[in-house]
Each structure stands twice: as C-alpha cells, then as structure tokens.
Amino acid sequence: MDTIALEADEIIVKPFDFKRLPDLIREKLLARKPAFRPEKERVGEILRRSKDTIVGDWLGRAKESRELNHLRLSDEERTGHLPKLIEDLIARLSKPTDGVKDSDATFSSPAVAHGALRYQQGYTPEMLVHESRILQVTLFGTLQNNLSSIDFSLLLPDVMTIADEVDAQLTQTMGSYMKSVEKVASAVSAASAA
Question: What is the pLDDT of residues 62-116, one digit of tens each?
C-alpha cells in the first residue's frame, strides 16, 4: 500500500520470474509519460490564491476554540479585519528581503482597527494572543497543504517573515486594544471626579 501511495508504476509480487524483469522494465520505459511537475510558487502567491480558504479555516478553528467561542459573534464579526491582515502579510512577503534587519514590519491600519474592534466585542488580551496563534497555525497548515507547489529555496525566509509579520500585527493590535482600555478608564475616572 505504501508503494501505491508513492505512485509506483508496477508492483512485483513474489514469487516472480526474474528473467521477465528486463522485459518489464523495457515495457515501462516505452510506455512512460513525462511526470507532471507543478509550477513552483513563492509562499506569498500560495497565500494569495488561498486567502478565502485561510479565512474559512481560521474561522473554523476559532469557533472550535473554548477560549474564543464563548462570545456570541457572527462569522463576519469574528473574522473582523482578518482578510486585510492577510493582505498586509502577502504584501510584506512580496517585498525584496535584501538588507532586512530585525523586523521590516510596517504600520498596519487593519491591525490597529482590529484591536479597537476586539475591545468593543469583549475580547481579553489573552484572546487576542490566542487568535493570533490560530492564524499562524492556519497559515502554516496552508503551506503544508501546498508542499508540492512551494519554492523551497525561499521557504525559510518566507516562514520567518510570516512569523515576524503576524507578531508585528499582534503588537499593533494589542497597542490599539490597550489604548481603548485606557480611554475607557480615563472616561470613568473623569466621571467619578465630577
């Protein structure tokens, strides 16, 4: 069965007449077809063409998560700014990587809006970290499902970019979330003082 999974052309069953082996090889060589080799793609291209699947897979994982599914949110509310965050990631993966220092992440307005939205929806900081972790797992699962298409010469730098960008987005989301917390605390403090 393992041999069949490897797409073997022929399985020789014992007992076998070894005198037939040259004829069997000759037949297979004459009948062989060129192997299909899928075009190799950069990680960013795979994520671009898989964006809807990534959002759907992420949503499924988020709905199954005990940490996240106790909030009553519609699918649209739950996915929030996720499609835009993925677009930011894809844009980052499209940039040349020459001379990259510790982080080449840029400002992400969707990440900032995401933090404010999650505060309004009742998320905790732990929930933000958890959904970010789910995003990374989903992204890496997408890559695993597309292994035959990946350009392996660029895989490691692209994976490092994914980790850095998702972390940078989480940092910006958390910053926005904490500003919302501070804004509400200041308003409550001002109301109490009055």
Answer: 999 999 988 999 999 999 899 999 999 999 999 876 555 555 678 999 999 999 9
To the question of pTM greater than 0.90 for the whole model, the response is no
For the record, the structure tokens of 68 come out as 């996240």
* Dist. CA 155–CA 159, nearest whole Å: 6
Instruction: State the amino acid at position 85 in one-letter form.
Output: L
The two tokens of residue 99 are 């001379």
Cα torsion at 85, 87, 90, 96 (round to 10°)? Answer: -100
Amino acid at residue number 83: P
**Do 57 and 138 contact (CB within 8 A), yes or no?**
yes
> What is the CA 178 to chain-centroid distance, rounded?
26
Neighbours of 161 (CB within 10 A): 22
Residue count of the chain, please give it. 194
At 42, list the tokens: 């950069």
Q: Partners of 41 in the beta sheet?
A: 150
Query: In which region does residue 104 sit, left (phi positive, over 0), alpha (psi from -120 to 50) or beta (all else)?
Result: alpha
User: Which residues, 6+ apart, have CB-to-CB distance to 168 below 8 Å?
Assistant: 103, 105, 108, 111
